[in-house]
Amino acid sequence: ERLAPDALRETLGRLAEELLYPADALRRGLEGEVVVLVELGEGGRILDASIASGSGHPALDDAAVRAVRRLGTLGPAAAHKSILLPVRFRII
Q1: Residues 21-80: pLDDT tens digits?
Q2: For the sheet containing 46-53, what is the strand order?
Q3: For the range 21-29, what are the long-range contacts, defined as Cβ-Cβ under 8 Å and sequence gap of 24 or more?
Q4: How far is residue 22 from each of residues 6, 9, 27, 83, 86, measured CA to CA in Å?
Q5: Confidence band, pLDDT 50/70/90 cuts, at residue 2
Q6: What are phi and psi of 69, to 5 degrees?
Q7: 20: phi > 0 → left, psi -120 to 50 → alpha, else beta; which?
Q8: CA geometry: angle at 87 spanning 83 and 7, to 5°?
Q9: Rounded to an integer, what distance in angstroms lies between the CA atom of residue 61 and that of residue 67?
Q10: Is 41:26 a contact under the CB 8 Å cutoff?
Q11: Alpha helices in the chain (DSSP H)
C-alpha cells in the first residue's frame, strides 16, 4: 500500500533525521536508492523492515533498513499495512 502524500512527506522528513550515510560509502562516492518493505502493526508500529529493492551497495541497504527501524512508528493511519518506502542516498 501507499501512504497518503502528507503522511509520506512527514515520514520521509523523519527518516532524513535518522538516516546516517555510511562513512565508507561517502569516501567511495556511493549513491543509490533502496526501497524498504515496512510491515506495520497496531498503531502503525514498525514490526519489520526489509529490502524490497536494493541499491547495489550493501552498506547503503543496511543503513536504510536501520534508519527505517529507528522510526519506531508511522502513526495510527498506517496501522496494519505493508508499505514500500523509498530511501535515497545522494552526495551533495
Answers
A1: 999 999 999 999 999 999 999 999 999 999 999 999 999 999 999 999 999 999 888 999
A2: 46-53, 32-40, 82-89
A3: 21/63, 21/89, 21/91, 22/59, 22/60, 22/62, 22/63, 24/59, 25/57, 25/59, 25/60, 25/63, 25/89, 26/91, 29/91
A4: 28, 23, 9, 25, 17
A5: confident
A6: -65, -35
A7: beta
A8: 50
A9: 10
A10: no
A11: 5-18, 23-28, 58-71
Of the candidates 43, 47, 31, 32, which has an alpha carbon nearest to the alpha carbon of residue 82? 47
Name the DSSP class of 80.
Answer: T
Question: Rounded to two decimals, what is the model's pTM?
Answer: 0.92
Using the predicted structure, report yes or no on whether residue 1 has a pLDDT greater than 90. Answer: no
Q: Which three cell numbers stand for residue 38?
A: 515496512
DSSP label of 56? S
Cell of 68: 527505517
Tens digits of residue pLDDT in 59-70: 999 999 999 999
Cell numbers placing 85: 518506502
